[in-house]
Amino acid sequence: VNLTACAEGPVSLKLAANSVSNGADGPLAAYTSPVVFTVDKTAPVVSSATTTAPALTNAATVDYTVTFVEAVTDFTAADVTNSGTATGCVPSVTAVSQLVYTVTFASCSDGTVGVKIAASAVADIATNAGPTAAFAGTAAVTLDRAAATIASAPATAGANTKTSPVAFVVTFAEGVTGFTAADLSTTGTATGCVPSVTPVSATVYNVTVTGCSDGTIGLRVAAGSVTDLAGNASPATEYLSTTTKLDTVSPAAPIVTSSVAERTNTLPITATSREQLDELYRTLSTHPLVSIVL
Fold this sequence. Notes:
Helix content: under 10%
Distance between the termini: 121 Å
Oligomer: single chain
Low-confidence stretches: none
Mean pLDDT: 88
């Protein structure tokens, strides 16, 4: 018996009652055979491509679980590429069953990683090639193996200050965790400095330095003292901030000298420092009988 033009689905044979004769008509009742075969003309498709990896990681490899809607054969690494932005990825394929496969990506650069399967890469049990179009899964994993850097760490007072404690704002280029006073020391000529850290966000931290003597003050952040959100120890090398100068001593009284006799109406005055000049100007400029010419 040859069957043609069958639709998809199970196929069996049915023999009508009394349809044949061998001296007597038969069979006495209609006969239906068990299912002989199933017609399948549909290409296999990918049901899902999922991962248990963190969305952001510094891992050396990334695994995806690829599931087909029906059993397939011939699924190999040659059928897989990366759907994300990472370059240099080398895929491998391990069969869990004829439905489920593990795809592992290794040697990827930093960037996103996902599964892309070529069209007609596999065949189902009925030998239909599939998927009919390339499957591109979501690049759900971002690889980041670069240490976080410090973008800036200025003193809020600028290059000079007379106020203690001295404040700095440390800003990382990306979010970090574990930044504490133990990660800090000070640079410069001031002594006795004790830093403390107050987090503002994952990227911004306020640093307060107390107990300093007069002198220059900067911050030193130890290499590998914090961890970025992908797990990289950061910064890669020691970081040194610019310095500010702490000067809490008021200027000495100006030294006044005169080159003319006391009876003159004009009195030249010499100041030996900018601080003395400023103090002299503030003192004399408010006197009603004094006119100052600089």
